[in-house]
Amino acid sequence: MIKLLIRHKRLLITALLLLAVFLTYALNLRNKEHANPLERGVMSVIAPIAGGGAAVSGMFGDVWNNYIDLLEVRRENVVLRKSVQRLNERIVAGNEAVMANARMKALLDLKVTLNAPSLAVSVIGEDSSAWFKTLVVDRGSSDGLMEGMPVLAAGGVVGRLVKVAPNSSRVLLLTDHASAIAALVQRSRARGVVRGAGAGRCSMEFTVKDDDVKVGDAVVTSGIGGVFPKGLPIGEVTMVKKGEYGVFQTIEVRPTVNIANLEEMLVLFRQPNE
Length: 274
Hints:
3 helices, alpha+beta, 274 residues, Thrombin, subunit H, 12 strands
């Protein structure tokens, strides 16, 4: 026992001193108004430790509060982003609906002015090859469509049906090399045939040199052949060239319909032999 006390005498002496200090401090607590030298010494030792602990506690409290605030901001940010995305989707859908209504109104106006039975169709595909350029629409023989029927858009002539299946059809465009439409120059009544030249262009053939044709003239259907009604817009003359030799003049025509942007069209219920 004595050896154990000798071995830990430093620890024992320190503990006894601390115990004596705290006992003395406790006995002097009766004097509440004035601190004695011992109390002031203990307070001077403990005060910095307590202050440091309070500072550390306050720092960790601030860090925790900032972390909670950051999480809340992130949640609000996610909610706001989703709200903005939904609003953008609604705006896009609204704009699309407005544009679709404008196109359908123009098509309805065309339907009223035609004074002939017709059917609205929508473009569902496109087929390009070395020889043909066609659009695929969503109506076919089950809707009464037949090959050879003319196809129009709000701006004018698009082409004619060439292949008709029960639930879909192909439209041969007026810009295709295989397309030919009887036409005339609206101002001078000069006649010819508008053929497709590819790359979104057309040419007017078989118009004699003496016919009055100028750049900017409107070209419309002549009604000859019974496929297209008379007076439908085809395009505008963009170039006229009269050679020294030959009977006919060279005329280039730009279609009034923007073929690349077609979405809805009308098919006229007219037979080729009418």
